[in-house]
Amino acid sequence: MQSRSPKITIKMGGKRPEIAPLNVNGNHETLEKDQTTLEGPSVHSHSNHETLEKDQNALEGPSVPSHSDGKETDQNVLDGSLSEYSSEDEDKDNDKDKDKQIVLYDYSLNGTSEPVKTVKKHKSDKRVSFSRRPPEVGAFTVQCANCLKWRLIPDQEKYEVIREHITEQPFTCETTRQWNRDVSCDDPTDLEQDGTRIWAIDKPSIAQPPPGWKRLLRLRREGSSKFADVYYASPTGAKLRSLPDVVKYLKDHPEHAQGIRLERFSFQIPRPLKENYVKKRPKMAASTSPEYLEPSLAVPVQWAGPEKKLDVQLAEPLSWAGPMENNDGVPAYLKTPELDPVNRAAKKAKRYDINCL
DNA sequence: GCCACCGGTGGC
DNA sequence: GCCACCGGTGGC
To answer: Where is this region: Disordered (predicted)?
Structure first.
């Protein structure tokens, strides 16, 4: 609805199969509110199927989100479709199975959201494996600083570059030319926020991982105590889940510690737009019987807002400088990122006594 | 036994 | 309330 500042998003739902966005019970309308968006209302998707475990990453995405509160200023947003499914659910809608397809999208298709592969879910497949897989990031989108439309980012690497520099180098539709796409602010948004997937706001100014390292974001299922976890995969394949882990790893592997700056590691996670995606810590107070609270009533004050400081930081787009377009395909790492001012871990990194700084 | 995933909490 | 961190464990 009204203007917001641009954001970046990632969508979940990718790699893991997700249900085709044919609304199984889709009420798109309601989403237009400011409710938080999406949940694929109840689009469940079977998260998993052995055969699907291919490799595709999906893309699809949201579009201009409509958070009414104008507060979400520019940020990175992650959006994803929920791929979750329980066995009970499955039982309930077995009859609908025939309508469901798992759809994989492919990143390698630059920027389009065309499904490249659809796999029919087979009822008889081991149903255990359907359940309990958390959703995955399915696509990355960034909001144009000018028109506020969402543009798909073709792959994680590009997304990370954009995210790293978003504050100094706002993203616009023109940026997509870097991957030979030709869209302008006059073109429709790439992604609609239609409630079939989950969106989350990503943090800006997160440094790209050091060369040879990969930053992994693992989403948790709805109702978990946290939204996601970040891991860094080292050049040797080790997965590190905290800065102390990284420090230890570097000490143990001095050969990989050369030139590595701890500031490049950020374990910050995105924030889901869906209000109650993450289970809140139970209040101590005596009052009511939490059990019977209607979920939808739970948190009336939507944006009372704690985390607003973030938004502020992202907020104003400065002038466009054209980030990584040294189009020799060389991404813009190598510029040391500004430290994200709210990255406590990064600041804290300085306290670690390690010589690889 | 490993590891992906989840819960919990101290400290800010 | 959020973040950083780490312990526990179910499922492979």
So the answer is: 1-100
Strands A7-12 and A198-202: antiparallel
Task: Say which residues have a Cβ less than 8 Å from residue A348's Cβ, sequence separation at least 6.
Answer: A243
Taking only the tens place, the pLDDT of each residue in A268-309 is 998 888 888 898 877 655 444 443 333 222 222 222 222 222
User: Which of the 8 DSSP states describes residue A204?
Assistant: S
Token code pair at residue A298 = 């739970």
DSSP A116: E
Beta-bridge partner residues of A330: none
The neighbour count for residue A348, using CB atoms within 10 Å, is 12
Of A32-36, A277-281, A350-354, the one with minimum mean pLDDT is: A32-36
Residues 269-328 of A with CB under 7 A from strand C: 269, 271, 280-281, 283, 306-307, 310
The answer, as to whether pTM is greater than 0.70, is no
Using an 8 Å Cβ cutoff, are A80 and A228 in contact? no
A283 CA to C3 C1', in Å?
19
Closest of A25, A66, A63 to residue A44, by C-alpha = A25
CA atoms within 13 A on the CB side of A232: 25
Q: How far is the CA of A31 from the C1' of C12 (A)?
A: 39
Distance CA A187, CA A251 (A): 51
Q: Which residue's CA shows the smallest distance to C1' of B8?
A: A225
Based on C-alpha coordinates, what's the Rg of chain A?
Answer: 20
